[in-house]
Amino acid sequence: MIIKMKKLLLFLPNSEKDIKANLAILGELGMVHIAPFQLPKDGSIDKVDSRVKQLKKAIQILDQYKSKESDPIVNTDRIDKLTKDENSLLEKILSTEKEYQNLLQEKERLNENLDWFKDWGTIALDDFKLLQQKGVFIRLYLANDKDLKAISEQDQFSIVGKLNELHQIVFVAENEDQKLNLTEVKLPEYGKNEVVDLINQNEAILKQCQNLLTALSLLQGILVKALALESKSLDLKKVEFSGQKLDEQIVYWKGYMPEESVENLIRLAEENSWGYVIQDPNEDETDEVPTLFKTAKWAEKIKPVMNFMGLVPGYKELDVSKIFMIFFTFFTGILVGDAGYGLVFLLITFLVHRKKKFASSIEFQLMYTLSAAIMIWGILTGTYFGSEAIAEISILNQLRIEKLASFGGDSIFIQKLMFVIGALHLSIGHLQMAWKYNNSIKALGQLGWVAIVWGLYGVVNNLVLGLESQPITPYLFALGISMVALFSHTGSNFFKGMLSSLGNLPLSIINGFSDIISYIRLYAVGLSTVLMATSFNNMAIGDGVTTVVSGISAVIVLILGHGLNMVLAGMAVLVHGVRLNMLEYAGHASVEFSGREYKPFKLKK
């Protein structure tokens, strides 16, 4: 259910002190979604925002070095000497991390320097400099076979080795400008002994930085508290500068709040002498009104999927969470459709949940539900890791519905069932719209669409599956088209509304036809999952396992093959399971997911 919202205009004295104090009280209420008149801009916002980013960065750095006072790496005496002032602490962490990253880059450069000697041998760089002083210039090159032939007439070079299929060439130049048209290898910056010493020094300083950051991690709580205060200040400033001056004495803000919170707002307003106007949003403001929906606890499990996809119904649209949850669960079961895979997903979810100490989370609840759905559909279809032999085990065989069976089932029946599911799914969308218009004749137009959907279902069965047309199909179309034409549009001009409905009807019927056919993807993708699993089984053990090597190979193929198949099945759920809800069903329920998420201005006390 989408909660009814009220529009609020809040008037406060134009005094910085009063504004901050009153907005802090409003933030502690935590129920008003602010709709800014303009993008909040001010130098103080940028300053606090920069501070917040620095604190977050410092906390993230310390997360990598978390330790305990009992760890031998931490010198508690040193901790006591470290400043506990947040500014100095922040500066120390950021500067140490910067030094650490610079040292890592320097180490990489030094290692490249050392690798040069592995490729070209231990060469004394001072000898090169001495030869240059005496007019002898040594140059090093890399050349492939083709380039080598091009310089074969030269007598001033020697091939000293090979590196990655390229010839290593030493060229003795007569003067500083004489060069070969090849890839020249520059001399290293340091000699071998020198670079080894520098690497050792570098690693020692890196260790010091790591130890210091590990020690500083014990003071992370100081930064966490500072971040909470700065974040609160930032939120407050953003709201402060999103208001608008009414005159020199009054500033006002616009926002939206749940109808059930109005009494609390009025009480605060009267206690603090605020001016306010509370009213229903205008029709032209509905795009701005945030969406807050409350649904049954079991349907809240779908929130992670909707949040991941960024799906927020508009304020005037339907709450589709319950239908989304029911059919998404059902679609997931069909698309994956293997009880063995469902068991694997269930075990993985359990193990991760146990690692999280069984923390209460709707994400885990959703995964348990989807895993169970996959297992149930897999049991009904007799699918266990794509193995027909497992499906024929006596106990499992009795649980299988023969017409749905992956091995030897009735494919026409299964496809027909998918179309039934599709017609039902789309019909629910129109029935929800009919309920929404229960005080209007538009409800009859939506019921007309239900008749058309089931008429289209009959046409799809005939054209796609070759089934005999049902006698009721023409009557469903006649009834549905009449109701849509007569009742879809309301207004002063009845005939104009009817003609408008009839004009849009052909294209809408074609779209409805394609929407029902879209549900065949449930059958097709589910079948492909089974076929891939079967193929991997045949690849692994089709010819039998006769040796240890063949046994190991079979295990590797089974693990990698089924692992890949489960990943692809999971992707299919995100693509097809979400799509059928987000496009086909939502289109028939007139849900465009154009809403704004309800984000109240909330400050911790």
UniProtKB/TrEMBL annotation:
GO biological process: vacuolar acidification
Listed GO CC annotations: proton-transporting V-type ATPase, V0 domain; vacuolar proton-transporting V-type ATPase complex
Transmembrane segments: 323-352, 364-385, 412-431, 443-460, 472-495, 548-575
Lipid bilayer topology: Multi-pass membrane protein
Assigned keywords, A-Z: Coiled coil, Ion transport, Membrane, Transmembrane, Transmembrane helix, Transport
PANTHER family associated with the record: V-TYPE PROTON ATPASE SUBUNIT A, VACUOLAR PROTON ATPASES
Coiled coil location: 79-113
Cellular compartments annotated: Membrane
GO molecular function terms attached to this record: ATPase binding; proton-transporting ATPase activity, rotational mechanism
Protein name: Uncharacterized protein
Alphabetized InterPro entries for the sequence: V-ATPase_116kDa_su (IPR002490)
Family named by the database record: Belongs to the V-ATPase 116 kDa subunit family.
